[in-house]
Amino acid sequence: MAMAMAMAMRKEAAVAVMMVMVVTLAAGADAGAACEPAQLAVCASAILGGTKPSGECCGNLRAQQGCLCQYVKDPNYGHYVSSPHARDTLNLCGIPVPHC
User: Fold this and answer.
1) Quick one: average pLDDT of 67-72?
2) Of 9, 26, 66, 99, which has the fewest beta carbons less than 10 angstroms from its beta carbon?
């Protein structure tokens, strides 16, 4: 009886560990897709001043591409993201301007 109980507890522990791993992996996948406007700080001179965007700026814009409509609708970022310089920056980075 004790042996059966110990095996059942090990099985439950293994299932619990697997669940934690699945949740951790899923959270990691979502974290890569998270919208983080702070990543666009490297684009400030391009978006605000019209300078040529850096490679880092373009890379961050690509990573945040799925978030651009969210930023456009945000009153804190909308006027920056929808500005003519922002459109120029997207074009220079080869990123399509979103139609939100």
Assistant:
1) 95
2) 99
